[in-house]
């Protein structure tokens, strides 16, 4: 019985709420989306963060490492 309780507690230790995950995503991807030119706290900025978080989690792809200005905005590679 004690083992079952320990397993249950251990499995819950890594859980985060949707709100906590959103805060983590904003902290991680906000600087990147702002470098792309999205103004903070706009719908396009939120879309950028959501897209990057989803791609990072499920697509196996990471964000570009380096962004530079180009004639049409930012070029990231």
What does this structure look like?
- It is a single chain.
- By secondary structure, this protein is mainly alpha-helical.
- It has one domain.
- The chain has helices at residues 2-12, 18-35, 43-59; strands at residues 67-70, 73-76.
- A two-stranded antiparallel ribbon has the order 1-2.
- α2 (18-35) crosses α3 (43-59).
- The termini are far apart.
Annotation keywords:
77 residues; mainly alpha; two-stranded antiparallel ribbon
User: Which quaternary structure do these chains form?
Assistant: single chain
> What's the order of the H and E elements?
HHHEE
Helix/strand-derived class?
Answer: mainly alpha
Number of helices: 3
Low-pLDDT residue intervals, each spanning 5 or more residues: none
CA radius of gyration is 18 Å
* Major sheet details: 2 strands, antiparallel
Shape: elongated
Q: How many β strands by DSSP?
A: 2
Q: Compute the number of structural domains.
A: 1
Proportion in β-strands: 5-15%
The N- to C-terminal Cα distance equals 53 Å
Helix percentage range: 55-70%
Average pLDDT over all residues: 79
Give the strand order of the largest sheet, numbering strands 1, 2, ... along the chain. Answer: 1-2
